[in-house]
Write a structure and sequence with these properties.
By secondary structure, this protein is of the alpha/beta class. The longest helix is centred in the middle third of the chain and has 26 residues. The protein has one domain: NAD(P)-binding Rossmann-like Domain (Rossmann fold), CATH 3.40.50. An eight-stranded mixed β-sheet has the order 3-2-1-4-5-6-7-8, sandwiched between helices. α4 links the parallel β4 and β5. About 50% of the residues are buried. Bound molecules: NADP nicotinamide-adenine-dinucleotide phosphate. NADP nicotinamide-adenine-dinucleotide phosphate binds next to α1.
Length: about 240
């Protein structure tokens, strides 16, 4: 019997600020015990304190998504504290540096591409695979990958971002491969787009609040067992690939 806690457990990566913190807040308010995944000790503990002050059951988990060791240690910590994981929200992400607000493909620094993929794509695979044994102990496991409509090959939205946009396209593709792999299991995985949100990421230029950006991730994290699988959604519904 591994269920040492009766409430559902959710891990949110990059939960110390922005959309991740709002997802953690929303899941906490919905009754989840929230494991606050963040790489910086001080920022993580501040976020945990904020969530607890708001009434959420929250604890911090050291997690740098670019490190397999860190992902393994985070899984061990969640196992120790909670015994299982019901929801994983892969939210941590970076844009990588821009020049004049763009990433020009004709002058692209491939080290930037590698760094962006390492966080936005490989980080999701690392953390997901580290958490799978814990997700396998949950009754209705859900995985939500926070993507972007900038990764949509159909919409081609936003500025030219030759590292960031393809990283989200690949994240969408990886999401579909996980969904296919989990087709005969209880694990439901989807990708979401939060919209254009006022966070550090956008220099607070986004028109939406972090709470608005978090809403679709929370919805996908709490899907019923017959919910959609392997899709890409925002508040309006399906986002074209
Ligand atoms: P943000 O305010 O910059 O927050 C990003 C979070 O990711 C921070 O907590 C950051 O931690 C964390 N992070 C980055 N690298 C990490 C790593 N290696 N290990 C662990 N955590 C790491 O950005 P945001 O706007 O909330 O973005 C959250 C997600 O939404 C991202 O995946 C982004 O691509 C996506 N998104 C955002 C928008 C938007 O308009 N804001 C639109 C579409 C999609 P530190 O504080 O330690 O850096």
């Amino acid at each position: 019997m591994n269920h040492v806690n009766d409430s559902k457990i959710a891990l949110v990566t990059g939960a110390n600020k922005g959309i991740g913190l709002a997802i953690a807040q929303g899941l906490g308010a919905a009754g989840f015990t929230v494991a606050v995944g963040a790489r910086d000790d001080v920022k993580r503990e501040k976020a945990v304190a904020r969530l607890q002050e708001a009434g959420a059951d929250a604890y911090g988990v050291a997690l740098d998504v670019t490190s397999a060791d860190s992902a393994a240690a985070a899984a061990a910590e969640i196992e120790r504290r909670s015994g299982r994981l019901d929801v994983l929200v892969n939210n941590a992400g970076i844009s990588g540096p821009t020049a004049g607000g763009v990433q020009d493909p004709t002058t692209l620094d491939l080290d930037v591409v590698r760094a962006v993929l390492d966080t936005n794509v490989f980080g999701v695979v690392r953390v997901t695979n580290a958490m799978l044994p814990l997700l396998g102990r949950a009754r209705s496991p859900r995985i939500v990958n926070v993507s972007s409509n900038m990764g949509s090959l159909t919409l081609r939205t936003g500025p030219v971002m030759a590292a960031y946009a393809p990283s989200k396209t690949m994240l969408n593709s990886i999401t579909v491969q996980y969904a296919r792999r989990f087709a005969d299991t209880d694990i439901i995985v989807n990708a979401c787009c939060p919209g254009y949100v006022a966070t550090d990421f956008t220099g607070f230029a986004g028109s939406r609040t972090p709470e608005q950006g978090a809403a679709i991730a929370i919805r996908l994290a709490t899907l019923p067992d017959d919910g959609p699988r392997g899709g890409f959604f925002d508040d309006e519904g399906v986002v074209p690939w």
